[in-house]
Design a protein that fits this description.
The protein has 393 residues and is of the alpha/beta class. Helix content is 45%, strand content 9%. The chain folds into two domains: 8-187, Orthogonal Bundle (Endonuclease III, domain 1); 231-392, 3-Layer(aba) Sandwich (Glutaredoxin). It has 18 helices and seven strands. The chain has a five-stranded mixed beta sheet with strand order 5-4-3-6-7. Strands 1-2 form a two-stranded antiparallel ribbon. It is globular, with a radius of gyration of 22 Å. The protein starts with 7 loop residues before the first helix and ends with a helix. The structure holds iron/sulfur cluster. Iron/sulfur cluster binds at residues 146, 149-150, 188-189, 194-196, 199, 201-202, 205, 207-208.
């Protein structure tokens, strides 16, 4: 780990001074309401969840109440939250299990909580910490980003980050540290353009002290390799040059249209033609460290993509159920399409001879043409530059 000399104690002290009133932002009166609110928050702002639960909880506030409803009826109540169909199914099944196995009470152990549908370690930690007073660190996108920037962790996944934070932060501060990091991520250490010049931690922060931000390092290395500085126009996926027989697709080609089921309902690429550019991410496998990092970066930059007139969508041959579980746990609110037959991957030339998927990002312009393509994990700045170039071209 590269965190040996990180002044953990001083960082925590300053965070405690900066956010003395930090607490769980989800409105709840008991463990059950917090469990439901946390499941709903997976891809939704806490403010919106509070609006939704403010409507629901006066009438429906016990597992028996939700277990007596159909998933469709629950779905109608939570439509304002993303991924509402899978969340409705999970809430229904979870409430049935709470009634059948636990007498209508929420269990107070990690082992039992993560057996409930829609409940991963993050949700379980939120419930354990806030409802039962059990020291825990729930790692959401803010905690993951801020703790790794500061050097409190040096990890790629929420699970690794949680383990490292638990090793480095005194147990009695776990729960508060989780809230401090969330507050700091929301208010100062934004995913893009962190406000380092206004940050009270700037003299302690590993990210701020690095001479070149990580994203630019990656870009610089790639540009050195490719020998071009025009990342927004010159790339193509030339599989023939790689010695396999993948179909070649080039910048300027019409993007193969497709219609697939996704975590956000049916996704049809051509439905966005004339409306938006599309950042299309092909990734190898659900819920692996690299893919989690790539899709978390896409999620963190959704507002920027939207502001630049682009929508993000991901494609992978995994099942819709697998995508939904991952999206729900990780909080991905963009469509993740189930390309079960790998036909779309084949059409885009990202299907490898061994059946695997070549990790690739395409930008499809508003006219439906491939405007840019890059294998690997291009930085958000590169993709945004390609989106802008496509809009001007
Ligand atoms: S100095 Fe910058 S990167 Fe570091 S914690 Fe503050 S805002 Fe985040």
């Amino acid at each position: 780990m590269a965190t040996k000399r990180v002044p953990v104690k001083e960082i925590l002290h300053r965070l405690s001074q900066m956010y003395p009133d930090a607490k769980c932002a989800l409105h709840h009166r008991n463990a059950f309401e917090l469990l439901i609110a946390t499941i709903l928050s997976a891809q939704c702002t806490d403010a919106r969840v509070n609006i939704v639960t403010g409507r629901i909880f006066p009438t429906y506030n016990r597992p028996e109440h939700f277990a007596a409803l159909s998933p469709e009826e629950i779905g109608e109540m939570i439509r304002d939250c993303g991924l509402w169909q899978s969340k409705a199914r999970n809430i229904h099944k979870t409430c049935q299990l709470l009634v059948e196995r636990y007498g209508g009470e929420v269990p107070a152990t990690m082992e039992e909580l993560i057996q409930l549908p829609g409940v991963g370690r993050k949700t379980a930690n939120v419930v354990l910490s806030n409802a039962f007073g059990v020291p825990a660190i729930a790692v959401d996108t803010h905690v993951l980003r801020v703790s790794n920037r500061l050097g409190l962790a040096d990890a790629k996944t929420p699970e690794e980050t949680e383990q490292q934070l638990m090793q480095r932060i005194p147990r009695e501060q776990w729960s508060q540290a989780h809230h401090w990091l969330i507050y700091h991520g929301r208010q100062v250490c934004h995913a893009r353009n962190p406000a380092c010049s206004e940050c009270d931690l700037v003299d302690l922060c590993r990210y701020a002290q690095a001479s070149v931000p990580p994203g630019r390092n990656r870009k610089a290395r790639r540009l050195a390799r490719t020998g071009t500085a025009d990342t927004a126009s010159n790339h193509s996926i030339d599989s023939a040059a790689k010695g396999d027989d993948r179909t070649m697709i080039r910048v300027g080609d019409e993007a193969p249209d497709f219609t697939l089921e996704s975590t956000q309902g049916t996704f049809r690429l051509s439905a966005l033609r004339g409306e938006k550019a599309v950042v299309l991410i092909f990734y190898p496998r659900d819920n692996t460290p690299g893919c989690s990092r790539q899709l978390s970066a896409a999620q963190a930059a959704l507002a920027e993509y939207e502001a630049h007139g682009a929508q993000v969508a991901a494609v992978n041959p995994g099942s819709l159920a697998s995508h939904e579980k991952w999206a729900c746990n990780a909080g991905f609110s963009f469509p993740i399409c189930a390309d079960a037959g790998k036909k779309v991957a084949e059409a885009y030339g990202v299907l490898k001879p061994n059946g695997g998927i070549q990790r690739t990002v395409f930008v499809v312009d508003r006219q439906g043409h491939i405007a840019w393509a890059q294998e690997g994990m291009p930085a958000t700045e590169e993709i945004l530059a390609a989106v802008d170039a496509a809009a001007q071209g």
